[in-house]
Amino acid sequence: MSSLxxxxxxxxxxxxxxxxxxxxxxxxxxxxxxxxxxxxPDLPSQATVDRLDAxxxxxxxxxxxxxxxxxxxxxxxxxxxxxxxKRIGEQSADAIKEFGGMYPxxxxxxxxELRDSTKTDN
Length: 122
Prior knowledge:
mainly alpha; 122 residues
């Protein structure tokens, strides 16, 4: 009788140990991962900051650049679907013009880089 009770207690004990290990092992692994991961973000270089500032300060008052400007424009055209569509059309045309002016430069750079990479691969 005592061996039956002792066996039951042992089985319950091993079951509890397995459950605790299954619960704490993921927490331990996440903790180790967080402790060993570099959380210090790389700060952008000054050239990148300057380029982003220049992009933000482009003289184009027709197209909103920030979320606040988009929200302001949405408030201005609330309940005026014709005006909203007109602005969308104008802004889309401006964006296409801007992209069209940017595309040849990007295509030339990409072609040059592709040509250079195929020369080095051979």
